[in-house]
Amino acid sequence: METTTPLIMETTSEKNTATFTHLSTLTQYFIPFGNYIFPILIWSSYKDKSEFANHHGKQALNFQLSLLLYTLILALIAIPIFVIVFLQNLPMEAVFNDEDFVIRNFNFDGNIGLLSIGATAVLLFGLLKIVEFFLVIYASIKASNGEYYKYPMTISFLK
User: Fold this and answer.
1) Percentage of the chain exceeding pLDDT 90
2) Between the N and C ends of the chain, which has fewer C-beta atoms within 10 Å?
3) Are 54 and 16 in contact (CB under 8 A)?
4) Is the confidence at residue 147, as pLDDT, over 70?
5) CA-CA-CA-CA torsion for 77, 86, 130, 52, nearest 10 degrees?
6) 3-class DSSP state for residue 125?
7) Are 89 and 114 a contacting pair, CB within 8 Å?
8) pLDDT at 159
9) Dihedral sign from CA coordinates of 15, 17, 22, 27
10) How crowded is residue 153: how many other Cβ atoms within 10 Å of its Cβ?
11) Res 56: pLDDT
12) Residue pair 39/60 in contact by the 8 Å Cβ criterion
């Protein structure tokens, strides 16, 4: 006799909830911190009612928190580099003597290594935002099809 495991089918309501949880992270483009507020609201409302919605809610929030951490690291690299390079090329006598100052001879040569690291951090941030957009859409499609999805490069803050 052949035994099969029962296939648990998610209801349309569960699929829609999971899909909207992922899509709600895109509100960050219109509402500050919307990528945290709306997924938390949806997830906390449905986490006890549906294991499927609970899984996708945790995935969406873990992904957004991971991206926040990666963004903070990139900012901690890029911002000090650009500030240091700018301050090195600022004519201090103009600042101290309350004169108008013009940055005439910006020295790229002495700072090309630092500027390269800073520019790389900024480019990685831009790439991160593009990848985020497409992964959120992909996760939404998976959820709408009733499939479990786990974002790549995500730290599990919520287990």
Assistant:
1) 70
2) N
3) no
4) yes
5) 40
6) helix
7) no
8) 87
9) positive
10) 11
11) 96
12) yes
- The residue behind tokens 């990528």 is 35
Please answer whether residues 59 and 150 qualify as being in contact, where contact means their C-beta atoms are separated by less than 8 angstroms.
yes
Measured CA to CA, the distance from residue 32 to residue 10 in angstroms comes to 32
| Alpha-carbon span 81 to 74, nearest angstrom | 11
Retrieve residue 66's tokens: 């991971």
Cα-based distances in Å from 13 to 21, 113, 142: 12, 53, 15
Question: From CA 83, how far away is CA 68, in angstroms rounded?
Answer: 22
Q: Where are the beta strands (DSSP E) in the chain?
A: none
Q: How far is CA 123 from the centre of its chain?
A: 14
Per-residue tokens: 123: 């480019």
Please state, in angstroms and as integers, the Cα–Cα distance from residue 74 to each residue in 26, 128, 133, 135, 147, following that order.
21, 10, 18, 20, 33
Q: Which residue has the tokens 């593009």?
A: 130
- How far is residue 18's CA from residue 21's CA, in Å, rounded to a whole number? 5
